[in-house]
Every structure is written in structure tokens, then in C-alpha cells.
Amino acid sequence: MPGNKRNTTKKKSAQRTNRLNTEFQQLSLSNVTEKTSEDDLLPHSNKYRIAYSDRYGRYLLAKRDLSAGELLIVEKALVVAPCASGEPVCLGCYKPVTLTTSQYRCPNCKWPLCNEQCVGIHQSYGHTAYECELLQRENTGQRLHTITPADKIKNLYELIAIVRILLMKLHDTDQYKRIQLMESHVEMRKEQYSDLWQYYEENIVQELRENWHLSNDFTAEEIHIVCGILDVNCFEIGQNSAKARALYPGAFLLAHDCCPNTAHTDDPETYEISLRVSRNIKKNESITLSYAYTLQGTLKRRDFIQKSKLFWCCCQRCTDPYELGTDCSALVCSFCQKGLLRSSNPLAQDAEWRCDKCDFIMNSQEVLKLLDKLNNVLDSIDVHDVQGLENFMKRYAALLGSNHYLLLYVKYTLCQIYGRIEGYLISDMSFEDLKLKEKYCREFLQIADILQPGLTKLRGLIMYELHAPIMMISQCLWRQHLITRKEFNKRLREVTELLKKSSLILRMEPKGSNDYQMSLAAEEGLKQLENNSNKETKNKMK
Ligand SMILES: C[S@@+](CC[C@H](N)C(=O)[O-])C[C@H]1O[C@@H](n2cnc3c(N)ncnc32)[C@H](O)[C@@H]1O
């Protein structure tokens, strides 16, 4: 694949950024002082310790070498609540609901719930009696069903997490105190982010203190702090169509990196988080996770991190215009149509983008405009619309580098639906379509190997997807005597390897999740392969 072949200049660039990054890490490590008692936040561990640097604040450092797959943290949530995106969900279990009259609603507060048997009713991680009483008192359930603009509905859902934490101040002070140990960046928000501050002041603080009559219980500052804590520390969680956000007592301490060394998953029933080492970590290396979607380009990723977590990421990937060799932000030069455009300085959001073959330059605003436009086009395509997704690939290949993150997203989506939806079931797929699924899976896996290396769910899922077309294609070629026995066996060995790795990775996902189910399917596939091979040996011996 052209985009993945790194020429010497790119290699030099990667080496340069590697060196810079090591120097940066040494610098920040030399600043380390112990500030917080570990016992306040996390139980004692022989795997990590809490360190402090001026740059990261508190963060976790490896106490010893850690191996991929090691479990680091398993803990219960301090609070679980609907996401700030405002999509209507059940207040008990976070599965999608509608705001139509046929939707089941809580008989008291009238907020939609999935049904009267929802497991989250009267649970600390769901719809509690205290919350129900407050929502009922303020008649918010009725309002939710009568207000029209989508942003007002969003505001009401956004308030739930904030209200749940504030109610802890009155009913669960220990839990409230633990949450108060988290960073809110409240001063920075007030002084340097006036738009953000104003948004919360009008939509949350005034709403709760004036319209919800909570001014005697909570000061404006207390509410702003809770808003900040949620923005900075919450995890987006949810399995099997549920979507929620949650705060965890220790996991929030991990520093961010756009190519992290841990992976995490949440239990669909208990919302417990499990954080594992995804690739080997050296003693004294910082333990990191990604606060942003890793399959996004640097310009957008850094912008997201800065707006939500209030810092500019300067990790190795952000520093490198080639994004660790993936080149997943590069655009095709619209002038010479031969070269690729990349940021001349990825750590400066407004740096120009330059072509590597001609003098063409694009300013970063134009790049952002183009990315937003294409993103909107992509958003308008249904994720099951094979034709629509394929057309997007064809249409925008002239603008986007072959590994561009928007194309990667399309490839990933296609890999998942080829073989699964009507008209594209694996047994009905044409040889060409099977080849295409194999190609996209391989291309995607090459990038995932760099951006989410090691034991990560993304790799596990795509390896599972990849095994099927290789198997089908090999059988077809073998039946038609187009490949030798040796070649067929080689391909079977690859299929076996893929299934083994995929099952190893996905077995770490919580039981009851779709991903765990896939690990079982991978194991089943392995058994079948073994049975077939045993049968063949027996036949040969006859
Ligand atoms: C979820 S908190 C992590 C814990 C936090 N350091 C503390 O002391 O509470 C996220 C905050 O940590 C800091 N941080 C985390 N990763 C960072 C990074 N890679 N570069 C700079 N600051 C980082 C930022 O202040 C960010 O808003």
C-alpha cells in the first residue's frame, strides 16, 4: 500500500520525533514529585504508583516492567449517567428510548425508561428515588416531552449526570468527597475559556439554581466544579447499544497519549471498568490511555482534547507529521495531484499544509473546512449502506490520502458489514467482494497495529473479520486447483493464527458483551478447523 511505504525522509522524521519524545519524557520525569497519597485514590499496587509532574498533574507510572494483558485496575463506578450528547436513553440502563407517547415512562417523574422491569430502577448506578423525587418536583419529565428544539432536550439529559453528583453531596458524602478529588480545571475554565464558562453558567448553573430551585443547596461554584470534573474525567461507556458516561475513583488518573499502552472495557451489567496493559510497558514509563478517538487525524484529535480536557497534546504521534508512519491525515494535493499535503508543524493548529511534490500550500482553516464537509457527507450515509460507503471511497479517493482516517473509518465499517447484511451474507458474497473485504481488513489492521498496537479490541475484531474471507477464498481456489496444497495449508495457518489472536483478545471483554460473543465464535471456528484437519488425516490413513 503506497501510503504505508515509508521512504527514508519519513523514517528520519520518525527517528527525529522518537528522540524528541524520549527527551521530553526524561524531562517530565525529572520533574516528578510525589504529591498525593496513593491510598486516597487507588489501593496499593506492585504494578503502578501515582506520580506528579507539572505537565500532566497526577498520573500513573509503572513500578516494574508490565506485560501486555496484565490487569491493572478493576473498579466500580462512582457515578453512571446519560452522555452529554443528549440522545434519549433509559435513565436506568442507558439503552436508547424514544420520546413518543408509546414509550414507557417512570410513573412518578415521567422520564422515559426502557420498561417497568428495568434493572436500573432504584439502583445507585441508575434511576434512584432521590433523583426521581427531584425530577418530579420540577416537572422535568413533562417538559422533556413538550420542548422541541433538540438542544433543550440535550440540556435536560446533560443535567442528569450533574444532578446525580450534586445529590451525593446531600445523600452520599463519601462518594461526593471522592469525586471532589478529581481535577475540574475550574479556574482555567473561568479565566481562559469564557465561552465554555458562559455555556455552563446559562444552561446548567442558572437552570439548576433558579429554575430547579436548588440555590439553597448548591453554590454556583460547586456546580461549575462538578461540570468541570465531568468534562475532564468521565469515561464514555456502554455495551450492546447502551451509552453512558461514568466516573471511576482511580482510572481517571491515567495520562493521555494518542497511541496509548492500555485498553479498557466496561461490564454491561455492573458498569465496572477493567483496565489492562495492551502492550509491554517498561518500569518508570507512564501508563496511558487515549482520551480521544484514536482513528482520527491530529488536527481534529488535538482540537477535541484541547476543548474537552483543556490541554494541547504533544505526544509522539501528534509531533510527527506522518503520524507514526500511518500518514492518516495526509490529503492529496489538489494542484499537482501527485503529492500529499501534510501539516508543516502538527503542534501548531494554524500551521500551513504543504505538498511534498510541488509548492502548493493550504491553510489549516481550509483543511478543517474540507474535513468537516467530508465528515458531514459521511455522517449522512447509513452505516449499513454498502453502496453509499463504497461510493464515498471512490468519490473522495482523489482528495484523501490512501490511509486517511475518513477512508479508514469507511473501510472498518465495510469490513464489519460485508458478510453480515442482506445481499452481502458471507455465503452469498462474490469472489471479488470477498477479495475486497480481505483487502480492507488487511489495510485497516496495518494501521491498527500502529495506532492501537497489542491486545486491543479493535485488532481482535478486525482479525476475526479477516479470517472469513481468507478461508472462503482459499477454499474456492483450492477446489478449482488454482493453488497448491502447500499454499492452501499456509493460508489455513494464517486463519488459525488470526482466530487464536482474536479469541485471546476478545476473551478479555466482559461476558455478556457482543465482543465476548465474538471470542466464542472465534473459538468455535478454531474447533471446526481442528476437526476438519483430523478428518483429513484419518481419510489419508485409510
Ligand atoms: C483525567 S485527568 C488526569 C488526572 C489529572 N492529571 C489529575 O491530576 O487529576 C486529565 C487531565 O490531566 C492532564 N493531562 C493528562 N494527560 C496529559 C497529557 N498528555 N499532556 C498534558 N496534560 C495531560 C490534563 O490537565 C487533563 O485535563
TrEMBL record:
Coiled coil: none annotated. Residues 46-292 form the SET domain. CDD domains: SET_SMYD (cd20071). InterPro entries: SET_dom, SET_dom_sf, SET_SmydA-8. One of its GO terms (molecular function) is S-adenosylmethionine-dependent methyltransferase activity. SUPFAM superfamilies: SET domain. Pfam families: SET. PANTHER family: SET AND MYND DOMAIN CONTAINING, ARTHROPOD-SPECIFIC, MEMBER 4, ISOFORM A (PTHR46455:SF5). This is SET domain-containing protein.
